[in-house]
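Hello again,

I reread your note about wanting to compare the complex against the isolated chains. To keep things tidy I'm splitting this into two emails, and this first one only covers the full assembly. Below are the input lines as submitted, including protein chains and any nucleic acid or small-molecule components. They are followed by the predicted structure of everything together. The single-chain runs will come separately.
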Amino acid sequence: MKPLKADELRKKFIDFFVSKGHTQISGASVIPENDPTVLFTTAGMHPLVPYLLGQPHPAGTRLTDYQKCIRTGDIDSVGDPHHLTCFEMLGNWSLGDYFKKEMIPWSYEFLTKELGIDPEKLSVTVFEGEEGIPRDTESAEIWHSLGIPYERIYFMPREDNWWGPAGETGPCGPDTEMFIDTGRPACGPDCKPGCGCGKYFEIWNDVLMGYNKNKEGQFVEMERKCIDTGMGIERTIAILQGKKSVYETEVMQPILKRIGELAGVEYGKDDKTDISMRIIADHIRTSTFILGDQRGCTPSNVGQGYILRRLIRRAVRNGRHLGIQGTFLAKVAEIVIDLYGAPYPELLQNKDKVFDELTKEEIKFSETLEKGEKQFEKMTFFMEKQGIKEIAGGSAFKLYDTFGFPIELTQELAAEKGFTVDVKGFNEAFAKHQELSRTAEAGQFKSGLGDHSEETTALHTATHLLHAALRKVPLRP
Ligand SMILES: [Zn+2]
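Full-complex prediction:
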């Protein structure tokens, strides 16, 4: 495998598809323009949905791009060596143009020639079929004709190899996914692509959108067939470079190095400080992408602004864990902008805004963080004495109202000490406060502060839309 860097992979992918007659389009904002069901653009195909559904695209029927994506549903898992809340996705699309016969050979060509992946290490999955929809032997035969032996072509059911439709009805279809054998021993006799043990690494997914689901729930083959593919940059370069983690690659190392300089620690020497360093690196990277976006927002108590606030506050708190005093977030963001200013010039244009907003939020939160933590300590000290293990909703609300602790932060602190939080009680206290102060616009607070994970709720709402897209780039390699 060629140990490509992110910049090289991005360029190779785009150049490859341009050489196959595609037009490069620019990626969209991380804040979706016409989709109120999700807070952030979560996949490369997300901005392309209207065109996959039939709207003509001004740039034609063969498109390719790289897209910054944000998924914060797993924010609590960030800190381990695998999770990221922000990543780049490469994609190419056929809008009623080419189909399987072109796409599968191109996939094979790109993986083996451009990325230098040993064909012996490749396995693929195809749709096994079900009542009314035939088994995708066509794709299997194309893979086989390219040299993939039948024993490495796996037929999988709908749960694994089907995308869509985006709504109740509409275009949908099977997909074919490509896996690299990492060389790890199989976890058992049933180990195969899609197994979570880490033997098989999913590198790419071609969605073969050839059906229309009608009102009667039938899948009817369409005349106008589309292709939608997605490849995550960070995890792909990690595997190409033989790294165990995306945090060991050149897109995260300089950020971790800067954090290390600020904290006087070195990455990779201590598990506990590594976790904090990864949280800061990830969260400030994502915050920089949100603040520096063409449609960027600022920290607030609603929607995207609330997620941004959570990311920043969590980074500040982890900075304190590392012993960093004073403001430091903008110094971390400088490195992110150095790394990504070329592919995303909007980051350079919005540089000052990124630094200002980070620092403003950091100062605001730092002022109360220490006091809040003291209050939290005091509170749990007395609770412990009385054998109480659940923090009352009113107390959690006080931490929010007086010290700016997002409910998730209180939950995190609580979990660290073996406590739980009465989130329902918090919501009630919050609602009551809203009613009294009448300052908030009705309805806006129902998410986020309400059920402690608005992004999850939003994703649930759009699950039908993004089901396959979400599977395309698992956050965990
Ligand atoms: Zn396995």
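For quick reference: Residues 389-452 form one domain.

B.
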